[in-house]
Structure formats: structure tokens, C-alpha cells
Amino acid sequence: MKTAFITGASSGIGRATAVALAKAGYQLVVTGRRRERLDELVAELAPVQVHVLTFDVRDRAAVDAAVAALPEALRAPDVLVNNAGGAHGLNPIQAGDPADWDEMLDANVRGLLNVTHALLPGMTARKTGFVLNIGSIAGQEAYANGNVYCASKAAVQMLTKTMRLDLLPTGVRVAEVNPGAVETEFSQVRFKGDEARAAKVYEGFEPLKPEDIAEVIVFMVTRPPHVTIAEVLVLAGAQGAATTINRK
């Protein structure tokens, strides 16, 4: 049975991806910081075999220890989905909170590196595997007040490209999905729990659902070895660019 390792699986795109890959026949390792959410996911997916790891991707030592404690077969997953991360704040650079900057750079960039570094030895030794990074349209288009979030996702895009080159001789494929407006907890996190402000982000149009992105991910990682869909941009039907949305 093929295995998939998914970070940030307690909600949103990560959770939807776990459900979709389980339906596609994968054994799962799901990670996150909220154990109770992950336990709920395990119960929902029964009888699919799911291993749960609780750690913060920003903590390299915790990542390494959690991966080392896995059964050997799970330390070399067939698919790694680097989903954990998020946006914090929406302020012009001169009014930004450095704590928010640290949060985004540590989770979106260093966290991705921490997890990938821990799992690549097994994948490269086996000479097959698939690393799929969750980017964002924000990594392709700058928008006002997006500054550090846009920069972090641009870093994910460049890391994906360079990882693909570095890993090419090993048989490990690397790709990226760049979602547009997806209705998840993303905006609640960005606006520090301000649910009213978060809801306004999705008013007047039908945003993407996490399941829409999960469906794309399953398609990408299940292509035959001679096919790599390297990069996909997924927008809501009413969305033309990062901040250009046809609201009714």
C-alpha cells in the first residue's frame, strides 16, 4: 500500500487532502498541532490506517524526533504534502508586526524545509517519491499589504523549482499547487480570530473549497512516473487575479 505524509492535516486543505488520499487507497501519516482535530480525522477515516504525529513544523528537533519514531516504511512515504503554514496580519510593511513576519517565514519556509529534510533520505534511497508543496497565488503576484506572506510563498515557489532540479537524479518528483481564494480558516488566522472580517473575504462570490484543491493534488500525485505536473494555479471561477474578484 502506498503511503502519504501530510502536514497541517487538522483543517482546511490538509484535512481535505488526507480524506481524498485515503479514498484513493493511501495509508496516511497526518501531522498538526491540534491533536483533538487529528483524532477526529482518524475516526472519520476508519478503517483506513492513519498514524498521527503532533508537532510544530517550525521545531526542527521535534520534526526529526517524530519522523525517527515512525516505522521504517513510513519514514519514506510515497507522497509528501507540505501544507502546513499560513498568513498572519495584513498590514503595510511599515506597520507590520515582526512577530507575524517570523511566524510566516518559520512556518511557510523553514517548516517546509524541516519536514522535507527529515523525509528525503528514505525517499531518495528508494529512488522514488513525490514531494508536493502548497504554494499560493500570493507567491506569483504581489498585492498591497501582502508583503511578507507574498515573499514566503514566493520562496516556496523557488524552493519547489530548485528541489526539482536537485532531486531529478534520484527519481523523486517535485511539484507545487498554488490556490487562489479557498474558504478555510486561513482568513480567521490572518485576522487574529476576527470572524466577521474573515467572512467578508469570501462575500459576493463562490470561493474554492478545500476539496477542490485536494482533488487536484490526488490527480497530480497519481500520474505515472514519466509524468510530472510541475505547477498548477487554481482559481475560483469568479477570480481573475490575487485580489481581482467579481463579487455580486
UniProtKB/TrEMBL annotation:
Q: Does the keyword DNA-binding apply?
A: no
Limits of the Ketoreductase domain: 2-185
Gene3D superfamilies to which the protein is assigned, alphabetical: NAD(P)-binding Rossmann-like Domain (3.40.50.720)
Record keywords:
Oxidoreductase
**What InterPro entries has UniProt attached to this entry?**
KR_dom (IPR057326), NAD(P)-bd_dom_sf (IPR036291), Sc_DH/Rdtase_CS (IPR020904), SDR_fam (IPR002347)
PANTHER family, per database record? ALCOHOL DEHYDROGENASE (PTHR42901)
* Family affiliation: Belongs to the short-chain dehydrogenases/reductases (SDR) family.
Report what the protein is called: SDR family NAD(P)-dependent oxidoreductase
Which organism is this protein's natural source? Hymenobacter negativus
